[in-house]
Amino acid sequence: MPRGRLWGLHRGRKVRVKLVLVQPQLVHAADDRNIDTLARLLAPLAGTVDQDDIVLLPEHWDTRPSRERYVNDVRELAGTLGCHVIGGSHHETRDDGRRVNSGVAVAPDGQVVGRYEKLRPYAGERALTEPGDLLGEFEIGGRRVLVLICADFWFSDLIHAVKTLPDLVLVPALSVTRKPTPDYSRSLWRDLAVARAYEFGVYVGVSDWGHPSELGPLFTSAVGGFADPTQIEPARLFTPVAGESRVFDLDFGLLESFRTDRRERGFYWR
After folding, report:
1. CA–CA dist 8, 6 (Å, integer)
2. Which of 141, 146, 199, 202 is 20 to 30 Å from 53 by CA-CA measure?
3. How far is CA 169 from the centre of its chain?
4. CA-angle at 243, arms to 237 and 247, nearest 5°
5. What structural domains does the chain harbor?
6. pLDDT digits over 3-49, tens only?
7. Which of 192, 191, 178 is nearest to 221 (CA)?
8. Inter-CA distances, 199 with 55, 150, 160, 195, 268, Å
């Protein structure tokens, strides 16, 4: 596709965006200071990212009871970095008295641009929270984003429930495993991310807790990574975070070309 036509398809929206995925060692405790760990990890990004770039935090990194502190910490992080931060999640007691696992997406100026809740709590979490009802659809820089908290990513009906096709599916995770090593979980998450990316024609990013973070009798699997359906080398369809963080360059021009190719062959979901 000629470059001029490619830019025309994306007039008013950035063709290239940076996505920052993280996978730090965190602590699950009532007095945790995980925000300090995240702030130190992400500090080198300040001045290197644009306002429409995105940082994705893991699920339930903040176990403190205060919702206000959680939102303010995400706001401060977004302001310091100068980009959008999708703030993982926090157990919120809503005005109706229901306790749900939910999160906020915040712009660099502190504005909350998106909210989302976990619709399908998993395993022991069901004793702590109730199913939410807010699917995380919103836009950043003209790009449609869908946030699915951890286990929600495993339910394809939630993706089919969106109002418009997302460009980017982001998953704040807190992976747990009963297996002796994280290999089983990592394989499942990798294959699922690639399948979702290819079927729906989207980029997929997962941020998780590092392995082995402190999490009572279980341990996390560090399943964070990025699925890119535009790749033609099988080994590059999924790239794990591997360390504590990784920056990925998203080319939405390539993604649109991928979608166009699939539409022309009648092999696309919408």
Report:
1. 5
2. 199
3. 7
4. 60
5. 12-264 (3.60.110.10)
6. 333 333 444 577 999 999 999 999 988 777 899 999 999 999 999 99
7. 178
8. 24, 19, 11, 6, 7
